[in-house]
Amino acid sequence: MKRHPRTTVLVAGCCALLTLSACGGSGGKNTADTGKTKVQAQLAAATGDIDKLTWALPKGEPTTIDPVNAVDYSSALVASNLCDTLLRYNPDFTTSPGLATAVQKDDRTVVLTVRDGATFWDGTPVTAEDVAFSLNRGMAPTAVVGFVFANVSSITAAGSSMVTVKFKEPDELFLKELSTVAGLVVQESYTKKAGKSFGTASGGIMCSGPLKLDSWKPGSEIRLTRNDDYWDKEYRSHAAEVILSFVTDSAALVQGLKSGEIDGAYEVPASVIPSLQNGSAGSVYFGQSPQSLEFAVATADGPLKNTDLRRALMIAIDREALAEAVYHGAAEPNYTLLASSTWDPDGRELWKKASDRYTTENAYDLDKAKELVKSSGYTGQKLTLSVQAGDDTFSRIAQLIQQQAEQIGVKIAINQAQPLEYSTMLYDSEARKGTDLLLSANFNGAPDPLEYLGFVFTPGGPYNWAGYEDQKVFDAVAEARQTFDTAERVKLLTDSQSAWEKAATGTSLVNTYEVSYLGKDLTGATTSFPYLFTPSLALIGRK
Amino acid sequence: MSTSPPRSARAARARRRLWRWVLGPAATVLVASFAVFTTLSLAPGDPVGRVLGARATDAQRTALRHELGLDEPLPLRYVHWLTDCLHGDFGLSIAHRSPVSELIGARLGTTLFLVGYASLLVVIIGLALGILGAVFRPLGPVTAGLSGLGIAIPSYVAASALVTVFALRLEWFPTIGAGSGFGDRAWHLTLPAVSLAVGWSAYVAQITRTALREEQSREHVETALGRGVPPAVVFRRHVLRNAALPIITVTGTLIAGLVAGSVIVETAFGIDGIGSFLVSSVATKDYNVVLAISLLLVVLFVLITTAIDSLHRVLDPRIRDRRTS
Questions:
Q1: Residue A211 parent element (H or E)
Q2: B44 to chain A, minimum CA–CA distance in Å?
Q3: Are residues A363 and A335 in contact, defined by beta-carbon separation less than 8 angstroms?
């Protein structure tokens, strides 16, 4: 790996300034060690069954497991282990037939054929009506997955196994999204009977996945049991019983994993990687993930209206050092707005060819940054960087950014916003008043950059915080969504990329890896991000 | 001479009782709930946005706000909440979209067990240490030192030390979770209860020792001893009984303190009890949950205060006489 000579200086500086425990003493050793941790998508298949798997949910107790609202980590993981998606999201980010096969008949019609022999836990077959019903729920005004269905005009069941989806406008993203929670299928009769309590601890759920919901004790745990009649032998659960625990405190999580009381976890916080790597009860794994650390301009006003000043900030941050010092190797530096991990798998080569230039253009360069600050006419106003309070990793990154901006003469004040205040900032410009910069963890569901670009480069897009306006870019993004040919679509987007990169409204500083932990006697886990939308817990078994 | 007090005095007494047992506590609960309701609404942040995420449209947020009744004016929402409460309905949680009573009920048992267990430890250890320090004078400095140390150790430090030694090294106890069934639960909650009890038992020990010492040096105690009354009898009748007042007061407040302290301990041991639920619900402005838990705590405090008050009256005839005359 190419290293800047400055990297070492930065790591040392971080040790002096930031918490001693995280960086001191063994810090150097740990970063060297994690360099060896390989990035993999899937562990070797399990050879035997286990009685019980105890798993810590990524973000504590899910708020709901109703698929149409299951968009956060815990909710999605539980729902995806209980219910089947129409298309399977594979560990290598490709998609393949799942509960159904899908055909794009023409640019405004998708036809789904439901698999023969798939049954719900109660033994009744999964029908086209159930599928149409499930998808139609996603179109309800309060369904969080609503954005997936924005271009859909109708979803109807035809016969016992066919479902036809009609579109107002062509939408290439739709099929890929069916491999995420938007494509999860629930039973119509049960859902209707449960009414408002559907997907909650009291109402439960009825699905066709490899694990059945046994009990959900609020505040305590969720128990799942194996579905012996599952249609897909490959995903038959190795564990007879899965116990999902709700640990949210990172110290408690480490204790549980190290003592072996918890067998494993996904979304392990970067700050605890070194202490878990020191233990002998299990191992830490890294996998590719379309998640990234985003550093963005939060307002259309103020000193950051100036493009030079924006660019200066973006190239004044040593992304390599950040990946090592804060993420302990569980991230790779990134130099464009779009994290490379969000590229469509079949367009990866094309994306890479077009993006390589930005690795040089947006590289860490203090001298160039200083010049840009000078030419920007910046007169020393303090810029406010808002981050979510209470997150170790984020507060360390914010401090690093503050230090690096200082080196080019830009003053940054850190605003630690309470979680709710922070989450409001992400969509409400009123709440962003007084904030110049935002630091956020971005998360792309489907294997397609359009999911993210659609939120930034559309008029009034929720992530278009800097108020960016370039009709050509907006048109290219809109056109790409209607273009089914991957090469053409990628060309449309990469052609307009130079415009948005020049505008420097934001950048992805690092692609963060999926970090998981698994007890030493276990294997089989999907260690890349698609774990979140597949019955990943079913695959885990004895070595 | 009539033995019963005049009619007007009886009515006055009834009024006082009504105020003390019913109206006072009710007013406290009402004022507290209103204060919680309005302060929560003043905090920045939109609870609906947290549920729907940044990708939702404004139309989606408006629809959910309406579904949850969050689009009504604040006073009206409070009135609705209050009316529903009187019917035993504590509403739905915004984050969990489930009845608040179910969510709290499931967690309440854990916290009560934890606080009960810790209180028991505090009372036993605190009283034992305090009495030892007061009765056996040479032990005084030792117990005083222990108390000082105990008070100085914050519960999260105690938690982490206990886990390192008894859970990770010796593997005697589990590190996380609350367990199920009485035995398993007691086993799971031992380390949390001990970490919670450390500071408070030290505090109770110190108060007990000081109170006993003070009573021991009183004139009537020395007189009794001089008269040849056995020391054990003097200790029980004169010292312990009089010293009980401050000890009981402190024990009452300690239960309140334990409930507050349980927040930290529950988090450290990954126990989802009322404390950690309150904290996460405040962070997400989950109104109905915060109100219900606050209400529960206020009622608990009112009950404790009333209980302490009654015990005082039993133990100290002077208070009883003064108040009933």
A1: strand A211-217
A2: 5
A3: yes
| Spatial separation of the C-alpha atoms in residues A314 and A404, rounded to whole Å | 10
Given this model, what pLDDT does residue B172 score?
Answer: 84
pLDDT of residue A224: 97
Q: What is the mean pLDDT of residues A157-180?
A: 94
Q: Identify whether the C-beta of residue A257 lies closer than 8 Å to the C-beta of residue A517.
A: yes
Provide the pLDDT confidence category of residue A543 given band limits of 50, 70 and 90.
Answer: very high
**pLDDT tens profile B79-129:** 988 899 888 888 888 888 888 988 898 888 888 889 889 989 988 888 888
Question: A219 and B63: CB-CB below 8 Å?
Answer: no
Q: Which two tokens stand for residue A504?
A: 């420097």
Q: Which of B92, B272, B276, B285 to mutate to test the interface with A (most CBs of A within 10 A)?
A: B272
- Write out residues 149-168 of B within 8 Å (CB-CB) of A: 160, 163, 167-168
Strands A239-245 and A50-56: parallel
Residues 6+ apart with CB under 8 A from A76: A70, A180, A181, A532, A533
Residue type, B217: S
Predicted pLDDT at A525: 96
Residues of B in contact with A71 (CB under 8 A): 53
| Cα–Cα distance measured from residue A101 to residue A86, given in angstroms and rounded to the nearest whole number | 7
Of the candidates B45, B53, B268, the beta carbon closest to that of A71 is on B53
Q: Give the integer Cα–Cα distance in Å for A139 and A136.
A: 5
Give the mean model confidence (pLDDT) for residues A490-517: 94
The position carrying tokens 């307002």 is A299
Rounded-to-integer distance, Cα A229 and Cα A240, Å: 13
CB B110 within 8 A of CB B272: yes
Query: In this structure, are residues A183 and A445 in contact, taking their beta carbons and an 8 Å threshold?
Result: no
Residue A274 has pLDDT above 90, yes or no: yes
DSSP at A479 = H
pTM for this prediction:
0.84
β-strand pairing of A382-388 with A411-417: parallel
Give A77-129 pLDDT, tens digit per residue: 999 999 999 999 999 999 999 999 999 999 999 999 999 999 999 999 999 99
Q: Cα–Cα distance between B271 and A252 in angstroms, integer?
A: 9
Considering only residues A59 and A189, tell me which one the structure prediction assigns the higher pLDDT.
Answer: A189
CB contact under 8 A, A142 and B106: no
* Closest to B240 (Cα-Cα) out of B267, B273, B201, B211: B211
Cβ of residue B102 closer than 8 Å to a chain A Cβ: yes
Q: Specify whether the CB–CB gap between A280 and A509 falls below 8 A.
A: no
Q: Quick check: A421 and B273 CB within 8 A?
A: no
Q: Give one DSSP letter per residue of B101-167, joined into a string.
A: HHHHHHHHHHHHHHHHHHHHHHHHHHHHHHHHHHHSGGGHHHHHHHHHHHHHS-HHHHHHHHIIIII
Q: Is residue A443 within 8 Å of residue A290, measured between CB atoms?
A: yes
- Quick one: what percent of chain A has pLDDT higher than 70? 93
Nearest by CB to residue A63, choosing from B45, B51, B60, is B51
- Eight-state DSSP code of residue A218: T
Residue A234 sits at the vertex; the CA angle it makes with A230 and A236, to the nearest 5 degrees, is 40
Show contacts of A376-382: CB within 8 Å, 24+ apart.
Answer: A376/A303, A376/A306, A376/A308, A376/A309, A376/A312, A377/A306, A378/A303, A378/A306, A378/A309, A378/A409, A378/A410, A380/A409, A380/A411, A381/A302, A381/A303, A381/A411, A382/A411, A382/A412, A382/A413
Q: Say how far apart CA A538 and CA A540 lie, in whole Å.
A: 6
**Residues 255-284 in B contacting A (C-alpha not used; CB under 8 Å):** 267-270, 272-273, 277, 280, 283-284
Q: How would DSSP label each residue in A37-65?
A: SPB-SBPPPP-B-EEEEEEE-TTSS-S--
Return the higher-pLDDT residue of B316 and A139: A139
| pLDDT exceeds cutoff 90 at A169 | yes
Mean pLDDT across chain A: 89
